[in-house]
Amino acid sequence: MPFCEVGKTQGNDDSALNNGILIFYRTYGHGPTKVLLIIGLAGTHDSWGPQIKGLTGTDRPNDDETWVVDREADGGQNEVGGIEVCAFDNRGMGRSSVPTKKSDYTTRIMAKDAIALLDHLGWKKAHVFGHSMGAMIACKMASMVPDRILSLALLNVTGGGFQCFPKLDRKTLSIAIRFLRAKTPEQRAAVDLDTHYSKEYLEEYVGSNTRRAILYQEYVKGITSSGMQSSYGFDGQINACWTHKMTRAEIDSIRSCGFLVSVIHGRQDVIAQINHAKRLAEKLQPVARMVELHGGHLVSHERTEEVNQALLDLIKAFETKMSPHDWNYFPKKNSGASSRTMIEGETNTILGKLHFYLLYLLSLFMMAIKHGRSALQRLKQARVGDSLT
Q1: Does the pTM of the predicted model rise above 0.90?
Q2: 24 Cβ partners below 8 Å, 6+ apart?
Q3: What does the alpha-carbon distance between residue 239 and residue 100 come to, in Å, rounded to a whole number?
């Protein structure tokens, strides 16, 4: 199985920090165009399946021995103009290492994992596409090594911190409670469907079954085969999302380095609210294009053709040296509109922080109920013990 030993490709300080950290990866397709895919929280490399197939034309990894034999028998594939994709499991998930300290999980550290993987593969430059937490990692990576980025795609992204919290309503509160209570692949699959897809998509019929019924079986099978994420990995990746922040200097470094950016988002995303993605796209002007699609958090699966086309458009824009002026869709704003945007941004920031505090209080309330129940259970057991003696 292909692994990248992170410490071997880094300097002395980073090498000591990441000694023994292994990142599991797979490559697909062949050709001079290189694409690195970075998945989000609790996801594995195969979550990029629809994009891997759409970009390379195959879902068979290059390390598949039968695939290698078939290619050699055919004299190899025509690699002119082809695309090679690498997808990997972030630290804390799948077959990659799972550090036990939360401090070993930040988007900067995980971006260094991705950079180490580029070095391991021998890729000097690549198109970098990230989803959710993976988009935060991609953003951080682009600010750290902008000279190695050919283009940047950010799917269902937020700015981290309080922006990671979903919209506060009955539906999302129900999802959050179910997510925290999920202990089996079946329970986790049921709640994942509601977080990943729009209600309309899940209710559509494919033959005699709804998509929900079909996807539920697929999710249970996938979670069962890969295993539930460990508490160390989950807590660590949550820490990475919570502590993520892009400074003005980091945003400016992305804007000024010449590569184009595509911010792709589902309007019905209940996890990463689209207004946060819009604000990030505005900050990245004039190099960013905002692509809004009908879909949920996993819009890359729900609207596969549209997302794949948006990614191919980004690659083509790089190859044709399209200018930022021709790339972005944002209309020019007058000073009055700019002032209103600033006021709206400040208002949204205040509301976002208020939203976070409400969720924080709710989590404290839920923890108090949990501990209260545990204490009551222990008290009952003690009383039963006393009565027996």
Answers
A1: no
A2: 1, 2, 3, 45, 88, 89, 94, 95, 96
A3: 12
DSSP state of 89: P
**284 vs 206: CA distance, rounded Å:** 40
Exposed / middle / buried, residue 329 (Cβ in 10 Å: 0-12, 13-18, 19+): exposed
Closest to 85 (Cα-Cα) out of 113, 111, 42, 117: 117
Name the token pair of 138. 């991609």
CA 307 to chain centre: 15
| 24 within 8 A of 89, measured Cβ to Cβ | yes
Q: Give Cα separations from 379 to 50, 365, 366, 373 (angstroms).
A: 52, 21, 20, 10
Residue 263 has which token pair? Answer: 């911010």
Give the pair of three-digit tokens for residue 295.
């879909």
Q: Are 308 and 295 in contact (CB under 8 A)?
A: no
168-204 pLDDT tens trace: 788 888 888 898 889 899 999 999 999 999 999 999 9
